[in-house]
Design a protein that fits this description.
Order of helices and strands: HH
Largest sheet: none
Structural class: mainly alpha
Helix content: 55-70%
Strand content: under 5%
Length: 120
């Protein structure tokens, strides 16, 4: 076996020659790279605008929810005070008195059973 490497030489059937670009091809390649750059820049601008609008919408929603939460909290406090006031003994006595019942002024008496366990 021959250990030397012999380079291939071009033959007439398949010539190996570097292709040189024409000036038109070079110009179109340069324009195409600018077009790609422009498309990428345009896509980034669209994303930036969308992101700004989305963030502003989220902030408006957050502010609206905070305002609603404050209103609901004040309504809760108001209802709690009404319930506390309505559950006082004096208020209950006024409501029951309209139905014909009266509040007891005498304390209740304890009834004791004096029957012994052996007798029946």
């Amino acid at each position: 076996m021959n250990t030397e490497f012999e380079p291939l030489e071009p033959t007439e059937e398949s010539p190996i020659q570097p292709q040189q670009e024409t000036p038109e091809q070079q110009e179109s390649a340069g324009i195409w790279s600018w077009v790609k750059f422009g498309l990428v820049a345009f896509a980034l601008m669209l994303f930036y605008i969308y992101n700004q609008h989305h963030a502003n919408k989220a902030l408006r929603t957050k502010d609206k929810l905070i305002k609603e939460l404050k209103e609901l909290h004040s309504e809760k406090i108001s209802l709690e005070s009404q319930i506390t006031n309505a559950s006082k003994q004096s208020e209950i006595a006024k409501k029951v008195e309209a139905g014909g019942l009266k509040e007891l002024n005498v304390p209740p008496v304890k009834i004791e059973n004096h029957v012994k366990a052996g007798k029946r």
